[in-house]
Amino acid sequence: MPARVGLAVALALNLVGLFNMIIKQDIISQVIGLLIMDQGLYLAVVKIVKIPVPATYFVISLYFYTLITVFILLILLPKLRATAQSIDLTEIAHESDLKSS
Question: For a tag on the chain, would you pick the N or C end, based on fewer CB atoms within 10 A?
Answer without folding.
Answer: C
